[in-house]
Design brief:
The chain has helices at residues 8-41, 44-70, 84-113, 124-151, 154-186, 194-221, 229-238, 272-287, 309-319, 350-367, 395-405, 440-457, and strands at residues 245-254, 257-267, 294-302, 324-332, 335-345, 371-381, 388-389, 413-422, 425-434, 461-470. It is α/β, with parallel strands linked by helices.
Length: 476
């Protein structure tokens, strides 16, 4: 029952340490047996196997401690976690394997070509130990391999490879001893070289595994991206709607964790919230390749070839975290004139606001050299909440407004008329219903004309806000 309260990371850590600890115990037992039997029989194959197993023991001990450290969470000094400890331990194991190969090859050459050989005494005990070793190695390699695959642990994978090669090398040594025994029984003298030849075969197996492990560990330590992964990530990210380009993809591995950095280009008029939404979509795309990757997204604004003049104007304003509205561009005798409205902090002085607009207009001319003139209407952007009287009523004024609405044949009705008095100023808000098929430009023209007529008929109105609704959505 206690296990059910263990968190997933803690469960992973305990399982990895458990399988690594069992490997250490198995390596101790088999190494001791091979050392004793190797010197008793004088078999270089067995001695090389004992040396191989000794290094397996050292590697298993290194793995045991490395998996304990590598699963520690990231901290201020190790911001990518401690996963590289696994990669480094695998690198050390590679070095140990190469040292073993050098010794085995040297001794085998001495026995083959310089006749520095010992008297070899094959025995049933030697064969029994070898077969027992193969059984234990098979058991440990399976357990390590399953755990390495489950948690993508390079250290455990390296340990599993060690035990797997032990199976093959033990088999080769057994064959070598058997051939020596057969040579004695049948008086075939050249079979006495079977043992050093078997040792060379063991060295060949070790070198093969070492080269494979070396490539993996060096790639991990040098932050080499897994083969083909960059292309997969680029394809997934490019499939996200709104992504203009994928500028850069970086992938690195630390232990069983992958870290991906992706730089993408977005429309420069995208809002910060939209950029965040796009970053989330890009992260999801990367996770389709690496489900558990730690992903960092950098979004850069970029102009598109399909941008209109209006888009370019808004892009300049957005550069200053501002937005312009009621932008109107006129072509007068081949010269472009711009009129726009810009809201600035109401606490700015006229001098400061005008200076800022002058800079903004200069940037717009740099962006669109075709502009001959730019006229900006400066509006105050409210930064305070104003108290008011929401209960103000004027039946006479409402009657006057409804008569004005009757002058506009497109307006179906006027409703939800609200008058408010704020700081001794009269504010009007109302809803109007118009036909569904009117274009937005037509609706805007009608609303503007209606606002002008309201203020002409009632000069006391300070502000007028007209909300337009389609006829089919009128829920009154």
């Amino acid at each position: 029952m206690a296990a059910s309260y263990i968190s997933s990371p803690e469960s992973m850590r305990l399982e990895k340490r458990s399988v690594a600890r069992n490997s250490v115990l198995a390596a101790i037992a088999m190494t001791a047996l091979k050392i004793v039997l190797g010197f008793v029989t004088g078999s270089l194959g067995l001695i090389s196997e004992a040396a191989h197993s000794t290094l397996d023991l050292i590697a298993a001990i290194i793995t045991f401690f490395s998996v304990g450290v590598s699963d520690k969470p990231a901290d201020a000094d190790h911001q990518y976690g401690h996963g590289k400890v696994e990669n480094f331990s695998a690198f050390i194991e590679t070095g140990l394997l190469l040292v073993t190969c050098v010794w085995i090859v040297t001794e085998a050459i001495r026995r083959l070509f310089f006749h520095h050989h010992l008297v070899i005494e094959p025995s049933l005990m030697a064969f029994a130990v070898l077969f027992l070793s193969m059984i234990v190695d098979f058991w440990r390699s399976r357990a390590l391999g399953r755990t390495a695959l489950r948690y993508d642990s390079q250290a455990l994978e390296a340990d599993a490879l060690h035990f797997t090669t032990d199976i093959w090398s033990s088999g080769v040594v057994a064959v070598g001893l058997a051939l020596v025994w057969i040579g004695r029984r049948l008086e075939i003298s050249w079979l006495r070289f079977a043992d050093p030849i078997a040792a060379l075969a063991v060295a060949g197996v070790i070198m093969y595994v070492s080269s494979r492990l070396a490539r993996q560990t060096v790639d991990a330590l040098l932050d080499a991206a897994p083969r083909g992964v960059r292309g997969q990530i680029v394809r997934e990210v490019e499939s996200v709607p709104g992504i203009l380009d994928v500028d850069r993809v970086r992938v690195r591995r630390a232990g069983n964790r992958y870290f991906a950095e992706v730089q993408v280009a977005l429309n420069r008029n995208a809002t910060l919230q939209h950029s965040e939404h796009m970053s989330t979509s890009v992260t999801d795309a990367v996770h389709r390749v690496f489900p558990d990757a730690d992903v960092t997204i950098r979004a850069l604004p970029r102009a598109t070839g399909a941008e209109s003049i209006f888009d370019r104007i808004r892009a300049v304003a957005a550069r200053h975290n501002l937005s312009v509205h009621d932008v109107n561009v006129q072509d007068l005798n081949g010269k472009l004139h711009v009129e726009q409205h810009l809201e600035l902090d109401e606490r700015l002085s006229l001098k400061n606001a005008h200076d800022f607009v002058t800079v903004l207009e200069a940037e717009m001319r740099d962006e669109v050299p075709e502009f001959d003139s730019i006229l900006t209407h400066i509006e105050s952007d409210s930064a305070t909440i104003e108290p008011g009287d929401p209960t103000f009523r004027s039946t006479a004024l409402e009657h006057k407004l409804r008569k004005i609405v009757a002058e506009f044949p497109e307006i179906i009705d006027l409703h939800e008329v609200v008058l408010k008095r704020v700081r001794d100023r009269l504010y009007l808000s109302c809803h109007t219903t118009l036909p569904d098929d009117l274009s937005l430009s037509q609706v805007h023209d009608i609303s503007t004309a209606l606002e002008i007529r309201f203020k002409q008929a009632a000069p006391e109105l300070f502000k007028v806000l007209i909300h337009t609704e389609p006829q089919t959505d009128n829920r009154r």
